[in-house]
Specification:
By secondary structure, the protein is α/β, with parallel strands linked by helices. 50% of the residues lie in helices and 14% in strands. The chain has helices spanning 10-14, 21-32, 34-42, 49-59, 75-86, 104-108, 113-119, 131-134, 150-162, 195-198, 211-225, 235-249, 260-277, 284-295, 306-327, and strands at 64-68, 93-97, 109-111, 127-129, 139-143, 164-167, 170-173, 177-182, 201-205, 254-256, 300-301. Helix 14 (284-295) packs across helix 15.
Length: 328
């Protein structure tokens, strides 16, 4: 969680004034212009202009956002980048990594009764604000929102509904706009969001990019990881990975496919291995091994063992290699 801001006392928090956060978003959009914002996001993520516009259009009218997409597609980076470029306050956002054991008080904060009785409610340690309180006037990023239990979802819903967080009877004003991220419901470890909570968010989906764009993304990001390595990457290698990702994504037997991140790391680690060996190019065999090592932990489907997953990835890799060879 981002905590680079001073902690106000409980008395100060209770006296907070309302903030129209959507008005701040509109003001920023007028001042910076959409082109500047898209260019800023484009320095970190490619091919997401429409997704960015979907998010901004929601925030501008006070709508909370839920970005849904597979693991490793850039959901969290996108949320952070949009919050940074909007820069509604300092810091521009509060971020929380949600998990299934997160309690409501982790979101709201709580009063330490012993400290409060001994030193008073305004002692710095009497009340440590939670992210729902700290997010007042800025963006709240909830990473993996659908890992929150129903109990914690209820605490979040109250803040979204009433613009107040209630701490042992004390009502603290909290106006914020939320950008949440989440994996599709078929992923393990996720909870269904309550209808009331889902109704307060605009669902924006990120899907796997088209093959040519995915190839560009893989090359672009892998080049960042190997910037200190003197090795040129053949576009064909990235094309094989992009083709492989699409082959697996289209397979109805697969429940959870490899991420874009795993494709990027497969290429980067294969390039690193080639450099360590003193080779000037990536070998297909090394790339095949890196594909298996980077994608095996992610792939889920009708497999009874890791050995079956290895055979499946090996088969799909060879199919992708053949497709790319025939195209050239």
């Amino acid at each position: 969680m981002n905590t680079s801001l001073s902690t106000p006392t409980l008395s100060q928090l209770i006296q907070r004034k309302p903030i129209d956060v959507s008005r701040l978003v509109v003001k920023t959009l007028r001042e910076k212009g959409v082109k500047e914002i898209l260019a800023y996001v484009g320095k970190r993520l490619k091919g997401l202009d429409e997704v960015v516009l979907d998010i901004l259009s929601g925030l501008a009218v006070g709508r909370h956002i839920w970005i849904v997409g597979p693991v490793g597609c850039g959901k969290t980076t996108l949320a952070e980048t949009i919050a940074e470029v909007l820069n509604l306050d300092n810091p521009p956002y509060i971020e929380v990594a949600c998990h299934s054991h997160m309690t409501a008080t982790e979101l709201t904060g709580d009063i330490d009764i012993a400290v409060a009785l001994q030193a008073g409610l305004d002692h710095p340690l009497a009340y440590i604000p939670g992210p729902l309180v700290l997010a007042h006037g800025r963006i709240l990023i909830l990473d993996e929102i659908n890992r929150l239990s129903p109990y914690s979802q209820a605490a979040l819903l109250q803040a979204l509904q009433e613009h107040y967080v209630v701490i042992r009877g004390f009502r603290i004003r909290s106006d914020f706009l939320m950008i949440a991220t989440g994996n599709p419901s078929e992923y393990s470890g996720t909870y269904d969001l309550s209808e009331a909570l889902a109704d307060r968010m605009k669902r924006v989906e990120i899907t796997i990019p088209k093959r040519d764009l995915l190839k560009e993304i893989i090359l672009w990001k892998a080049a960042i990881f190997i910037k200190d390595i003197d090795l040129d990457i053949d576009e064909k290698i990235a094309e094989v990975l992009a083709t492989l990702a699409h082959l697996i994504n289209k397979d109805s037997k697969i429940e959870s496919e490899p991420s874009i991140r795993s494709c990027i790391y497969a290429l980067a680690t294969a390039a690193s291995k080639a450099w360590i060996k003193g080779s000037e190019e990536i070998s297909i065999e090394d790339l095949r091994k890196e594909v298996i090592q980077n994608m095996l932990p992610l792939i889920q489907g009708e497999f009874s063992s890791d050995e079956e997953k290895v055979k499946y990835l090996d088969k799909k890799f060879r199919e992708a290699l053949l497709i790319v060879s025939e195209m050239r």
